[in-house]
Design goal:
Elements: H1 2-26, H2 37-59, H3 65-73, H4 82-103, H5 105-110, H6 114-121, H7 130-150, H8 161-181, H9 187-199, H10 213-233
Amino acid sequence: MMAYIAEFIGTMLLILLGDGVVANVTLNKSGMKGAGSIQITIAWGLAVMIPAFIFGAASGAHFNPALTIALAVDGSLSWGLVPGYIIAQFAGAFVGACLVYALFKDQFDATESAATKLGVFSTSPSVPNMGRNILSEAIGTFVLVFAIKGIAQVPGLAAGLDKFLVFGIIVSIGMSLGGLTGYAINPARDLGPRLAHAVLPIKGKGDSNWGYAPVVILGPVIGAVAAVLLYGVIPWA
């Protein structure tokens, strides 16, 4: 049970801080409007790192259904835990997004662009192309999961330093590949907040673009599973 609580609260914090920085930088009447993509990218890395420090020992700090599935594929996690982990992750992401709306409601009301409002909650491609967008998400998630697994190859790593390395991984992916699809690399990170966007009474919010959902489901799961399969066949010793 503690693992599920950890995944719920951890994912909630991830989205509160991650979607929060997007709201902070893009919505009208925010004190940090216009700060730009560098602040967003660094803040997203921190949004992953902070709950990872708190809940790493309790649940492994997945906060990502694609990572959970991949770790079950390679035997690092029992398949029996997977449904509970994924439910907790999606629920936490939804609640985190609702908190962002509650905090920034005045800024949402002051912003006319429906696309900007949706962009606080979920990702979108710079150039819509379903196949290439899925590939982008798959490769970004491959890098994420392969690098997380690869942390085990660092000899004598001090306790807790692995979470700081995950911050670096997230920032690197965002700065190198983020302009393609917004680097969801996590189905819960996108679909939980997208659901919040769909149900919340956001003024002038427009469509929630559910047609994009296959990209943020298929891409991350394909990339994560490919990462653990490749990692598992490399003769490290």
